[in-house]
Amino acid sequence: MSGGARLENANPLIFQRTGERLRTANDEDEDVADPIDDREIFDLIRSINDPEHPLSLEELNVVEQVRVRVDDQENTVGVGFTPTIPHCSMATLIGLSIKVKLLRSLPERFKIDVHITPGTHASEDAVNKQLADKERVAAALENSQLLEVVNQCLISNARTG
Amino acid sequence: MKDTLALLQKFNAHPDSRCWYVAWNPKGTLLASCGGDRAIRIWGREGDSWECKTVLQDGHQRAVRKVAWSPCGNYLASASFDATTCIWKKKNDDFECLTVLEGHENEVKCAAWAPSGNLLATCSRDKSVWIWEVDEEDEYECVSVVNSHTQDAKHVVWHPTQELLASCSYDNNVCVYKEEDDDWECRATLEGHTSTVWGLTFDPSGQRLASCSDDRTVKIWKECQPGGGQGTDTAWKCVCTLSGFHGRTVYDIAWCPLTGALATACGDDGVRVFKEDETADPDQPVFSLSAHVPKAHSQDVNCIAWNPKEAGLLVSRSDNGEIAVWNYQSEV
C-alpha cells in the first residue's frame, strides 16, 4: 500500500489508547445475559490497522467509543468513523474493513451501519452509499485482491492483543 | 384487518451462503433459487414439502445474483457477479448449459425474458442494459446496448404483454425503454426516489409500475399521454408513494398477476402485503397495508415472488439462505 510513494497524511495526530475494560461481578456471572454494548463493539474495531500507517484506527482517532451506537434489543449497530483528512482516498477501504470485522464477529441478527462522521469528508455521501449497499459490498469482497487488503487491515497485532 | 399471511413452510436452500433470489416457473410448479455458493437449485413440491430436484453447479465463477425462467418454462437465464449470463436448457429433469453470454464489464445484476420469449434483457454494475435476441436455433445475439443510467443498473423487468422494458438503478432513477427502428432507446426517466431503486414490478394490466427503494418507500407510476399524444416520448407520473411502512431498505417488490396484491421484501426482516382500495380514483390509487409479518426471517428478506398460477401463494428469500412459503388470504 505505502510502497515508496508519498503518504497521503504523513504526520497524523496520534491519540492515546483507552485502558482495558473493568470487569464487574455481573460479567463473571454465567446466569446473567450479556447484552452487547458500545464498549464491546469498540473493542472489536479499535485495533483495526490503518492501511497507510503502522497504527490502529483508535490511535489515529478514526474510531472512538462515543461514535458507536448499539441497540441490543433492536439488533442495530451504528459506527461513525472519522477519516484523518477530508480528501482521504482510503475512506471506503477503512469503512469496509470496519464493516467486515463486525460482520464476521457479531451474531447474524445485527444490522450494521458504518458511515463517515458527518462533515469530515468531501465525498461522505458517496462513500456512505457504497458501504450501505450490500450487493456492492458482497461483490467487492469476492475480489481477491481487495479481500487481501482488507484482511491485512484486520490482522491483530501482538501488542494490542 | 382480517387479511392474513400464514407461514406454510420454511427450508434452508443454500447452506452457508446467502440466498439472493428465487423465481417460480411459469406453471407455478417449480422454484429456482440461486446464491452466494455459485449454484442454482431447482425445487419441486413433494406432498407438503419442497425437495431439491437438481443442483446446477459449475456454471459460474462467482455468486449468482438472479435467475429467470423463459415464458415457455424450458429455459433458465442466470445472472452472475462473474459478468456473464448463462442460458440453461431443460433436458428431462435436468438442465444443461446451452450458452454463456459475455459482454458486460462487471457484475450482471439481473436477466429477464420478454413475454414473447424472443428477447432477453440483462443489466449490470457497468450501468448498461443489454437487449439480446434469440432465434429458433437457440442462437443469441446482442441487438442493443443502452447506457441511460449514471450508476449501477440493479434490476430489469418486462411489461406483461408488450415489448416494453423498465430498469432501475443505484442512480435513484427508473428508465423505460421501447424499440424504435431496430434499436432500443430510453423513452422516459422516472425520477423521485431519493436513494437506490432496488426492484420493479408491473401491475397485471401493465398500465402501472411499482418501484421499491433504499429510501424505504414504494412508488406507483402510471403512464400518462402527454397532450397531443403523437407517439413521441411517453410520460410516466408518480401517482402514489407508500412511506412510513418499511423500517429499512425495501429490496424487492412483486405484484400478483392474479389478485393485484402487492408484496414487499424488506431489510428489516419483514414481509408485507398491500391491497389497493377498489373505490379510489385510478389516477390517484390508494394502497393500504393488508398483512405484515415483522420477523418473517431472522435476516434481511431479499426477494419475494407470487406463484403465477395459485392465488395467494407467496415465496420469500433471506440472507441466511432460507426460503419461506406463505399463504395470503384476503377478505374481499
From TrEMBL, chain A:
InterPro entries, alphabetized: FSCA_dom_sf (IPR034904), MIP18 (IPR039796), MIP18-like (IPR002744)
* Domain spans labelled MIP18 family-like: 39-114
Q: Which Pfam families match?
A: FeS_assembly_P
Biological process per Gene Ontology, one example term: chromosome segregation
Give the GO cellular component terms, alphabetically: cytosolic [4Fe-4S] assembly targeting complex
Q: Does the keyword Nucleotidyltransferase apply?
A: no
Q: Which UniProt keywords apply?
A: Chromosome partition
Q: Does the keyword rRNA-binding apply?
A: no
Q: What is known about what this protein does?
A: Component of the cytosolic iron-sulfur protein assembly (CIA) complex, a multiprotein complex that mediates the incorporation of iron-sulfur cluster into extramitochondrial Fe/S proteins. As a CIA complex component and in collaboration with CIAO1 and MMS19, binds to and facilitates the assembly of most cytosolic-nuclear Fe/S proteins. As part of the mitotic spindle-associated MMXD complex it plays a role in chromosome segregation, probably by facilitating iron-sulfur cluster assembly into ERCC2/XPD.
The UniProt subunit note reads as follows:
Component of the CIA complex. Component of the MMXD complex, which includes CIAO1, ERCC2, CIAO2B, MMS19 and SLC25A5. Interacts with CIAO1, ERCC2 and MMS19; the interactions are direct. Interacts with KIF4A; the interaction facilitates the transfer of Fe-S clusters to KIF4A to ensure proper localization of KIF4A to the mitotic machinery. Interacts with CCDC117; the interaction is direct.
What family does this belong to? Answer: Belongs to the MIP18 family.
PANTHER family tied to this protein: CYTOSOLIC IRON-SULFUR ASSEMBLY COMPONENT 2B, CYTOSOLIC IRON-SULFUR ASSEMBLY COMPONENT 2B-RELATED
Protein name listed in UniProt? Cytosolic iron-sulfur assembly component 2B
Gene name, please? FA96B
TrEMBL record, chain B:
Protein name (record): Probable cytosolic iron-sulfur protein assembly protein CIAO1
Q: Which Pfam families match?
A: WD40
Q: What does this protein do?
A: Key component of the cytosolic iron-sulfur protein assembly (CIA) complex, a multiprotein complex that mediates the incorporation of iron-sulfur cluster into extramitochondrial Fe/S proteins. As a CIA complex component, interacts specifically with CIAO2A or CIAO2B and MMS19 to assist different branches of iron-sulfur protein assembly, depending of its interactors. The complex CIAO1:CIAO2B:MMS19 binds to and facilitates the assembly of most cytosolic-nuclear Fe/S proteins. CIAO1:CIAO2A specifically matures ACO1 and stabilizes IREB2.
Q: Which domain of life is it from?
A: Eukaryota
> Spans of the WD repeats?
22-43, 57-89, 101-142, 190-222, 294-332
Where does it sit, as one GO cellular component term? cytosolic [4Fe-4S] assembly targeting complex
Query: Mind telling me which HAMAP family this protein's record contains?
Result: ciao1
Gene coding for it: WDR39
Into which family does the record put it? Belongs to the WD repeat CIA1 family.
The coiled-coil segments of this chain are: none
What organism is the protein native to? Oncorhynchus mykiss (Rainbow trout)
KW Repeat (keyword) present: yes
Protein's GO biological process? iron-sulfur cluster assembly
The protein's matches in InterPro entries, at most eight in alphabetical order, are given as: CIAO1/Cia1, WD40/YVTN_repeat-like_dom_sf, WD40_repeat_CS, WD40_repeat_dom_sf, WD40_rpt
Q: Which UniProt keywords apply?
A: Repeat, WD repeat
Assembly and partners are described as: Component of the CIA complex. Interacts with CIAO2A and forms a complex with CIAO2B and MMS19; the interactions with CIAO2A and CIAO2B are mutually exclusive. Interacts with CHD1L, ERCC2, IREB2 and POLD1. Component of the MMXD complex, which includes CIAO1, ERCC2, CIAO2B, MMS19 and SLC25A5. Interacts with WT1. Interacts with CIAO3. Interacts (via LYR motif) with HSC20.
Q: Which Gene3D superfamilies match?
A: YVTN repeat-like/Quinoprotein amine dehydrogenase
